[in-house]
Amino acid sequence: MSDSDLALSIALGIGLAAATGFRVFLPMLITSAAAYSGHLPLGENFAWLGTAPALAMLGVATVVEIFAYYIPGVDNLLDTLATPAAFVAGTIVSAAVMTDVSPMLKWTTAIIAGGGIAGVTQGVTALLRAKSTMFTAGVGNPVVATAELGGSLLVSLLALAAPIIALLAVGVFLWFAVRLIRKIARRARPANTEASG
Question: 11, 13, 146, 196: which could form a disulfide with 163 (CB 3.0–4.6 Å)?
Answer without folding.
Answer: 11
